[in-house]
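User: quick one, sequence for these tokens?
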């Protein structure tokens, strides 16, 4: 984050995340957490207009090396999900046009 905070901090049972909501959408954060659901649990809260705080709860006995791996995987997945969100928004009009054209060629009501 721009105010000097670290993006994450490691603890024996969790990883605390400080995320800029102007960079990452809440949906992207939730989706990234869901993708890692077998390895950790995500708790997320909005602190201010542009600040999200998340916690990745780790299984008991997680090593520091494994926690760092989980953090790296989370940020990789978060970047992927944010990019997907951006592409979805940018291509929304094209998808709607394609669907409208496809459905204009069909009879949705069975008229017999």
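Assistant:
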């Amino acid at each position: 984050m721009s105010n000097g905070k670290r993006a994450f901090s490691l603890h024996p049972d969790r990883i605390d995340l400080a995320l800029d909501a102007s960079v990452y959408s809440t949906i992207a954060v939730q989706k990234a957490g869901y993708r890692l659901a077998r390895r950790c649990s995500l708790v997320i809260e909005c602190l201010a207009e542009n600040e999200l705080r998340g916690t990745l709860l780790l299984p008991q006995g997680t090593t520091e090396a494994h926690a760092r791996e989980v953090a790296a995987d989370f940020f990789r997945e978060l970047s992927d999900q944010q990019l997907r969100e951006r592409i979805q928004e940018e291509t929304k009009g094209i998808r709607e046009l394609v669907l409208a054209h496809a459905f204009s060629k069909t009879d949705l009501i069975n008229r017999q």
